Amino acid sequence: MSMSVAAPQAKGKCAEDNIFAANNRANALAEKIGVDKVTNGTVGSLLDEDGNLVMLDVVQKSYKALTPKEIVSYAPIQGYPDYLEAVIDQCFGESRPDGYIRACATSGGSGVLHHVIHNYSEWGDDVLTSDWHWGAYNSMCIDNGRKLREFELLDEKDQFNFASFKEHVTNMVSKQYNTVIIMNSPANNPTGFALTEEDWDHVLAFLQNIIKDKDKNIILVSDVAYLDYSGEKHECRKFFKKFGNLPANLLVIVSYTLSKGFTMYGQRIGAMIGITSNADVAKEFVDVNQYTSRATWSNSNSAAMKAMVNICKDPERIVELDAERAKYFQLMKERAAIFMTEAASAELKILPYLSGFFITIPMTNSKAVCDIMERQNIFLVPLKKGIRLAVCSVSKKKITGLAALIKAAITEAGAQQ
Fold first, then answer.
1. Of the residues 82, 124, 249, 294, which has the fewest C-beta atoms closer than 10 A?
2. pTM higher than 0.85
């Protein structure tokens, strides 16, 4: 038996991340035989048509204009006040919900999810999300002594499975003081699915009803990591209005990140935005989450906050920012359209994709299919129930013909769709 000095709750932990492992193999091969000969469909970052990592021009200019003090200063634990205002404005746009709205800076969207799990669920609790979800949700729950529970995202008509959602929430509310729900919509990772306005109405009406007159709370986390590439700027934000005027025991926390919308992936900056009808809940939100920030990473990235603020206080730069985002949103739509058209021709089933960085192809034996694809220098991410393709990072040239190759690999592997 191997030697271990870790505490009991830490023994056996090991993070072999499928996505980064496949990405590393793709990059190593690209260095050896040339980028043009390798298709890397693993990367959750925007790449242009030449395969270069995108940093928005307006963001580059803002970074280059930072003063030494803006770059190296310690920021306040909660985040700079002008940053927090900018985050709220950028997130909600014209659809700011009614209520007390407070924000705390975090280490990307991951920091938001960590704080929510840590501060709003108890040791041993279940935390609910959909069966199609970003794998790190599970790691965050396990590392905090919680268990990730999954409802079925899609019904037999490929629409939001409200019945499955209701069943799980009902069971959790009956057993737990707090029920934390993570809803990654719009542009769900890994499917590109989104709840409709009507879906949100059903969800919020049900959640209010199930905790009415009960000493129970629901914390609904709206993970909007891919918001800025999920539709027309104002249209895709309309659902936020629905988070206003909710009962005090239904707290909505929006997980907002600058990783995607501002292409600041490695800068690790985001914010948790609390929306509540109750002043005490709003104050507590800042107090407990600020405390946890101090107890984990302390304060957040000063340069990234200041770079965002300098863009957001200049109307001309906002116009530039919106135009660049719209350009890349359009590019991803074109890539996705090629793949979806060819998938239909090849009779390759895909999950309903509306927008965002990823498309998912459901199947059994996904690892074997990915292995076959890798022999053709094509790298994709195997999931439990399918394969994830990053339309954010595969050029139109390389995505052309891909659906037929995946279909052939499924047949070769004896996998089922």
1. 124
2. yes
